[in-house]
């Protein structure tokens, strides 16, 4: 029901709006002057604005849904905090669903209501909305932020992305492969299975790591641990696989392809404002990321 709203063609229609958002935030960074937190000033606002636009969510509520999303994505949060954050987010989304039931808008929820409204309960629509809201900005925001230290550690790759517009697509695929922000998945084998010569018995617990998979020499034979923005893209697992593959992956790719080169061109002397060892990384989250990213130029 939602796939049609996230095709390459549909997502590409958002390019002018995303380019404007990126330009406006770069202007605001320049006006503020160094030092700024790139997470707060750039990496988080861009995908937040985009997903608000898609879901017809008032942008004024962004601080609320960002706060609730961080709790929901925090694997160490206690049950009471999770319940409270989910309830607050669901209540806000219920208002949006009610509005779209009465007069379907042009956003994703409005489209689903027009095409499938009779098949869905309000709770299901609320579930659609909150899932997209949480997943649609936290993941991309963390990829944008984490890409910057990775590029700063590899100045030749940074220069390529900044000065070669044609490599934006392959560059984003390589950053997705190299960083692989989804946390490892914990699963239990439901049957005996042989995997590459290893026996996994039914009932045994398994840790599945997208990052490890993305750096498998069988997938990337040459220098799998290196960042190479000219590398031919491989079938990396950062967006999952099969029926559970990320619905919004084309949107995430577009945001990164626009935002990262624009940032590097606007601030060619971009640098961390603190030693990299001082950066604080998210622990226990379902998505890996940096809590803050002070930069200067």
Automatic annotation (TrEMBL):
Pfam families: p450
Protein name: Cytochrome P450
PANTHER family recorded: CYTOCHROME P450 YJIB-RELATED, P450, PUTATIVE (EUROFUNG)-RELATED
Top-level taxon of origin: Bacteria
UniProt KW keywords: Heme, Iron, Metal-binding, Monooxygenase, Oxidoreductase
Listed InterPro entries: Cyt_P450, Cyt_P450_B, Cyt_P450_CS, Cyt_P450_sf
The UniProt record lists the keyword Ribonucleoprotein: no
Family (UniProt): Belongs to the cytochrome P450 family.
